[in-house]
Amino acid sequence: MQYKAVKGFKDILPYQMGTWNRIESEAKRIFELFGFNEIRIPVLETAELFARGIGQDTDIVSKEMYTLEDRKGNFLAMRPEATASVMRAYIEHKLYNVSPLQKLFTIGPMFRYERPQKGRRRQFHQINVEIIGDQGPRSDSELIFMIMYFFSSLGLNDLVLNINSLGCLNCRGPFRAELKSYLGRHFEQLCPDCQKRMETNPLRVFDCKVETCNQILKDAPSILDFLCSDCARHFDSIRSYLEELQVDFVVNSHLMRGLDYYTRTTFEVQTKEMGAQNAVAGGGRYDNLMKEFGGPDSPAIGFAIGVERVVELLEENDVQKEEGPDIFLAPLGKEAEDKAFIWLQELRKRGLKCEMEYKSLGLKAQMRHADRLKARKVLIVGDNELIKGKGIVRDMISKEQTEIPLDNVVDELIGVFNR
Ligand SMILES: [Zn+2]
Ligand SMILES: [Zn+2]
Q1: pTM of this structure
Q2: Ligand nearest to the CA of 232
Q3: Which ligand approaches the C-alpha of residue 264 most closely?
């Protein structure tokens, strides 16, 4: 019997972790510059939280959620997204008493029971960011600026930012009515799903992937023509801030992002390749969600980055960098090995990344290993070197060899790297 990982669940292997860590540490570094604090939320929540937050009739809740009953009969769900949990934590711990403005981020796995395919897994990872307690448009612009800065700092400059405004509830009513009557005129050509959506939630039609539906939507009324003056002003400000910050964007009035809770701003960062999997990150404003959850009337905006997609992009663009050890110790003979083993630990404590074999090997085999690890330098110490009191430091790139005194060899080596 050989065990395998569950379908749609993937191991992230040691040689892939460099890219993952780079993404996460860059996110933490940048978010901190922008005044965000990390929050960690549990993987399990009551299923009700997501039904309420994301919407009962969304695919995420109705088809894709991993739910389970615990031994007491509580109905739980593995989180399909993070925003609802962050809202819950904000209310439960009264974070608004600490400060009404909370800038939060969280990094971790999410779970959706989808058909596994390229770029889509049942356990996937997101970096989530939320600003709670501000109406914008400065918080909107800052958040969008930050996400684009994050991508460019990873070397991903070839992404397209789409932005839209869904208006407030006041502007959405008339738009919904107009859209419904437009869709009614094309009812026969709509796919069966969209025919249903037209009645229950016509905005959802914009999420449809069926080509004929997309064709019909090309001439559909635009939400942007229905914005009330407050919403229009809000959206105008964001556009002018982004222009001044030299962030390129495309206004895309079809960008609805499929969740019930969005109000006003939505945005998505996409790759230039076509297809449904081209979104790398997306988000929007959800001014009414907190109230909906029984919390204070705190407007909020957030986004999620799909970490797997970013990993793929970095691997495609080959902008990953694997750092080898600073120095590889290559002792020959038991006496040298025992000495080197102690130096090895001292050097690590002093901050040098270094490696050595556990078992005794010849020089050739050790050099091969040093090469495979991409070590920058190798220290060679055999019986001769011990007698002379001088080791050999070989630079693995220039192949140059120099001698180094063995008393105080740890300080000497640290010196070599600080030169
Ligand atoms: Zn409005
Ligand atoms: Zn459709």
Answers
A1: 0.86
A2: 1
A3: 1
